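Continuing the batch. This is chain 6 of the set; chains 1 through 5 are on the previous pages. Same settings as before, nothing changed between runs. Recording input and output for traceability.
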Amino acid sequence: MSLQYKSVLFHGTISKIDMIDVSKGQSHKDFGQGFYMAVDKSQAIGMMHKKYREAVRRSRNKEEAQFEEHLYEIKINTDLLKKLKVKVFYTADIEWLEFILDCREKGGKPHDYKYRARKPLPMKSVVG
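Output for chain 6:
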């Protein structure tokens, strides 16, 4: 089965990003440490707002004005992406669940996939 990759993905955050650095990603995430991107712009905006609210809530000595929301549009080289080792989950089955639990338990990136995606929820698409 041939995969169709999106050429533009989105990332919403409160951090200013000059260059993607996968090592700065949190370790125990669903698909392991990585740089998570959304296919849908509104999903990235929602994540950006969530991170902003969390940062404001956690900081007791900072004012809201010290946090900025950033929405990034990332152009993907789909030809290069096609050359990477890819794992796609077409359903939320037992294999998908075991993969997520393994990533959460072990932390880091306990696999050698460079791109992981779950259909039909494109928000889970990541590049690591």
